[in-house]
Design a protein that fits this description.
- This protein has 474 residues and is of the alpha+beta class.
- It folds into 2 domains: 5-324, no CATH class; 341-471, no CATH class.
- The chain is 55% helix and 8% strand.
- It contains 22 helices and 6 strands.
- It has helices at residues 5-27, 30-34, 42-53, 57-60, 65-68, 72-91, 95-110, 120-135, 140-164, 168-171, 175-182, 188-194, 198-214, 223-242, 249-258, 263-270, 283-304, 312-321, 379-388, 396-407, 410-413, 441-445; strands spanning 341-343, 346-348, 355-356, 428-438, 450-465, 468-471.
- Strands 1, 2, 3, 4, 5 and 6 form a 6-stranded antiparallel sheet that branches.
- β2 and β3 form a beta hairpin.
- α1 runs antiparallel to α8, α1 (5-27) runs antiparallel to α15 and α11 (175-182) runs antiparallel to α12.
- The protein is globular.
Length: 474
């Protein structure tokens, strides 16, 4: 078997960097999201679960906040502790303890993060963090192979769900003719990608599905096949990162791609490894790795097979793992959105003059250049994309968001790029809906990045009465 100790070390360092980005990104948002005056206070969630589950509440919602409480100070401290653990992973110090601490801290935040920490990359980071416990153990080869299995599952499922969804855009090759401008947070490069000839975009759609469905299986092959497969998958991630804002997801997937290498491959680039003793083989680690791999395969099969065909005992067993959020299924954009509805939030103090709130990353003013967020994950901007595809009644977090704006919560206003009511909150809020599209080249030369047309209202005009939203009576 090929040596993988250096690959395990590289994977842990890269994962530590991803963890560090994730915790830093959360630190600047967490109070506005789930703080005491945030959109979805974590303390209220803990109380709700405790009332429903009683003594078993920590099993239903595993989080260290049962011990520390979910105060604003505790939320910040958890982000800080996670960042310290991540930095230790990057430095290669106390790897086992650092990997465990980072995973526990992120799990604790995800489980009180409500809809804001329910994205697939949050699940992927937790699953990769669980795999890292094996990579940092006395049997690092197990961790490397689990990381490869996770990469295979992630990429193959991403392609399979596109074909199994029945969405015609993936089958006729037109998916990318919509994707670049309908994706959640496009940036400047997305605009130019959307201008490519239709033939190029159709070819790119076919290549994407082929890469996701076929190339991951090369991870199971011999060294050269495995290396080539990892290179192709890494290239796809770089293209995705270059044409959209997906936070730390692409970096995390690249870290998994490096796990497909082995020490001999690394030796060609960074020189031979120093001599070190062969790690001791410990049977319990092998059993745990086998169980984790079995559960991972089970989750994939449950997602990809008809529900009636999946045994009920197996579904029940997987249900016990759900609170840990660390064995997951994947698959982004199984059904391609073909329109781009955008919610604009406007406030007024008198019901006559209205001013718009401005978000940092999602489309707003037509002439504003779409920005690149890097590894930062702007949680509210992303949720606004999902909300616009739904209805006001079905998005309770959005209603809570409006309440906080009407209350003038500083931590919530800090999540926005511009608060038009810095001195006192407005009395009324309305939420007109628009349908956005990228501008044509001619319109772009005139200074516009977007065009839009009215599409009604998302919610009715509201005001605050006794701490609750009510229909406005200007």
């Amino acid at each position: 078997m090929e040596p993988t100790e250096r690959v395990a070390e590289l994977f842990l360092r890269l994962l530590g960097g991803v963890y560090l980005c994730a915790f830093a990104s959360l630190a600047v948002q967490i109070i506005g999201l789930v703080g005491a005056s945030g959109i979805a206070p974590a303390g209220q969630l803990l109380e709700f679960v405790r009332d429903r589950a009683g003594a078993s509440a920590p099993l239903v919602l595993p989080t260290l906040f049962w011990v520390t409480g979910a105060s604003d100070w505790a939320l910040r401290a958890m982000c800080g502790a996670g960042a310290i653990a991540a930095a230790l992973l990057v430095a290669g110090r106390f790897r086992s303890w650092a990997a465990l601490a980072a995973w526990l801290a992120y799990l604790s935040l995800v489980n009180v993060g409500d809809v804001f920490l329910s994205f697939q990359w949050d699940a992927l980071l937790l699953e990769a963090g669980l795999v890292a416990l094996f990579a940092a153990s006395s049997e690092p080869r197990l961790g490397v192979w689990l990381a490869r299995a996770l990469l295979l599952k992630l990429m193959f499922m991403s392609g399979a769900v596109k074909l199994l969804s029945g969405d015609s855009t993936w089958r006729d090759g037109t998916a990318l003719t919509y994707h670049f401008w309908t994706q959640p947070l496009p940036w400047e490069a997305s605009f130019f990608a959307a201008q490519l000839p239709v033939g190029v975009q159709k070819a790119s759609t076919a290549a994407t599905v082929a890469i996701e469905c076929l190339v991951p299986w090369g991870i199971l092959g011999p060294r050269r096949v495995r290396g080539a497969s990892a290179a192709v998958l890494a290239g796809l991630q770089l293209l995705i990162a270059g044409t959209g804002n997906y936070g730390f997801f692409n970096g995390l997937t690249l870290a998994l791609c490096f796990a497909a290498l082995d020490d001999r491959m690394l030796a060609r680039w960074i020189g031979p490894a120093p001599e070190h003793p062969t790690p001791k083989r410990v049977t319990p680690w092998r059993v745990a790795a086998a169980l984790l791999l079995l559960a991972s395969v089970g989750v994939a099969l449950e997602r990809l097979t008809p529900r009636a065909a999946f045994p009920e005992p197996a579904r029940a067993a997987l249900g016990w793992l759900w609170p840990l959020r660390s064995v997951n299924s994947y698959g982004l954009f199984a059904v391609m959105t073909r329109e781009r509805p955008e919610i604009q939030i406007e406030g007024s103090s008198d019901g006559a003059e209205w001013h718009a709130y401005e978000f940092r990353w999602k489309p707003g003013p037509l002439e504003r250049r779409p920005g690149f967020a890097g590894p930062h994950m702007p949680r509210v901007d992303w949720q606004m994309w999902f909300a616009a595809l739904s209805t006001c009644r079905d998005e309770p977090w959005f209603q809570a968001f409006l309440v906080r704006l009407l209350e003038g919560s500083p931590s919530v206003s800090a999540l926005l790029a511009r608060n038009p009511f810095p001195d006192a909150p407005p009395r009324y809020l309305r939420t007109p809906l628009f349908r956005y599209k990228f501008a044509s080249f001619a319109e772009w030369r005139a200074g516009a990045w977007w065009t839009r047309e009215p599409a009604g209202d998302f919610c009715p005009t509201v005001e605050l009465r006794d701490g609750h939203l009510s229909l406005a009576e200007p």
